[in-house]
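**Paired protein data**
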Amino acid sequence: MTKLLFVCHGNICRSPMAEYVMKDLVMRAGREAEFEIASAATSTEEIGNPVYPPARRKLAQHGISCAGHAARQLTAADYGRWDYFLGMDSANLRNMRRLFGGDPEGKVTSLLSWAGQDRDISDPWYTGDFEATWQDVNAGCAGLLAALTQKSLPKLVVVLGTTACGKSGLGVELAKRFNGEIVSADSRQVYTGLDLGTGKVTEEEMEGIPHHMLDVVAPNQPYSVADFQTGAYAAIDDIIARRKTPFLVGGSGLYVRAVTEGFAFADVTPDPALRAELEEKTAEELYAILREKTGVTLSNGEEHNHQRLVRSVEKALAEGWEPPQAKPRYRCLLLGVNFPRETVCRRIDDRLQARIDAGMIQEVANLRAAGATDQFLDGLGLEYRYILRFLKGELSSLEELKDELGRAIKRFAKRQVQWFNRDRDVLWLDMEGDFLAQATRAVEQFLQAP
């Protein structure tokens, strides 16, 4: 059991807020048996007092009760009892180390440092800004929980980033160096026959490295992010069981996060009547409903995929639906690839021309001839949507197709960067420098770390 003690000057504002936020996070993660959590003060001013009313109200806004709390004082004897002492500011840290005669075992840390920030959590007793304190405390506790629970998890290396920036090639090079296998995280490469349009890695490009989650479902068939997560988990767990290194490689942000963050997707029984009603709505209408109901923001083309949006909205409208809860299954190293904007645009143009020359338009025509519906192809977005329009005569020339499609891919690349920039844990590689050496060092350190 890991024992956590949250400490501030008094014990009626920040430290009890952190105590009860952490208890709530641990409870929702189903890990209550793994932690003991409490809070204390380095002073005697508020000993025995309950949580300060504004702090209590802020916790209540988020459904967290702190009833029964009574402020207590930190003692020197606590050092032997607790594993971590989480301070709210630099003064807390100094006071604790003075009380403990130093910190010989390295137990005293700043709470906000677990969220990757080197600053104090402001004291709402003086500032009156309980919302800012809540946000800091919540971020620190979430980072702390993730770090502590992932120490015992198996390791997964993730290569993510912008389209046309070399994710697949980097994944293969790293897998060759670290006895690895690759699990694709691309929402379109799961379909058979979608090769040139998705940039699916060829057998020659694999260089003997096994790849998983490619060609797992036929066109027109329903396939969700939950389906992908199940398949990816199975592939990664099998790779680990064979004592090889798993690499998750791809640019579909939702698919990557489903694995790295470990969302638990609730199963909802299909509702034929509701589904028929939703089928009549456009992708834009469905996405608006999904955002209003869940607050979920999609990217990387997922916001245009009609088939998947229908199923997502159907689940969100089901009675008793709750948003997916995160419970990480792996300890992840996130490596990001991206070039300056002008370089990305040039690479996109060059790749688009190469794929057209290789037969990408004919690939879409063949898919239609084999039974892939126009609705399915349009829902895939980008190459398949615009080539479909070209084949239907909605785009009058090859030059118009290249112009419209090129601009759409560049907008998509920009959204990818915005999506992945949300995650502060991504190590963005210097793609104009020796990025392979940089990535190799990062993977070596990650795999060697306890």
Notes: DSSP finds 18 helices and twelve strands in the chain. The two ends are 18 Å apart (CA to CA).
